Amino acid sequence: MPILPEILLVPLSRPRRLLRTLTGVLVGSALMAACSLDQEEKVRSQIQDWVKLGETYYFFSRVNCTAALFEVKASRITSMVKKVRDVDTGMRAITEGKPVAFEISGMSPTVVTEQIMTRDLPLGLGVLSSGTGGKDCMAVEMEDAYFNALLDPTSVLIFDPEAKFTAIFDRRNMRLFYSRGRTH
Question: Are 71 and 55 in contact (CB under 8 A)?
Answer without folding.
Answer: yes
